[in-house]
Amino acid sequence: MAIQHATDATFKNMMQTAGVTVVNFWASWCGPCKIFAPILEDFERETSGSVNVIKVNVDENPVTSSQFQIMSIPTTLIFKDGKLVYQESGILPKQILKELTA
């Protein structure tokens, strides 16, 4: 499964999945977001679809961004069975993503 892109209109339905979901809040003008993007893509490829990865553009989706009080980007949220279990701003190494989603 490829990385999915959520909007304010689709986010809630996309989160209705069981298992682990990684949500990345980002923006096209954000330098650290550009650095984190290939790390996230590699992580998604290596999980072979066992982890759902969703990206949310903060500029285009202000409702979802404010719902989770996103104040800096990139911010990564990890959900297990629809419940938020981890949140951190900044670039996360791929190994940390693997550990947090295991």
UniProtKB/TrEMBL annotation:
One Gene Ontology cellular component annotation held by this UniProt entry: cytosol
GO molecular function terms noted in the UniProt entry: protein-disulfide reductase activity
Entries under SUPFAM superfamilies matching the protein: Thioredoxin-like
Coiled coil: none
Pfam families, A to Z: Thioredoxin
UniProt keyword annotation of Disulfide bond present: yes
CDD domains, A to Z: TRX_family
Annotated InterPro entries: Thioredoxin, Thioredoxin-like_sf, Thioredoxin_CS, Thioredoxin_domain
GO BP annotation list: cell redox homeostasis
Thioredoxin domain segment(s): 1-102
Key words, A-Z: Disulfide bond, Electron transport, Redox-active center, Transport
Disulphide bonds in the chain: 30-33
PANTHER family from the UniProt entry: GEO12009P1 (PTHR45663:SF11)
Family to which the UniProt record says this protein belongs: Belongs to the thioredoxin family.
The protein's name: Thioredoxin
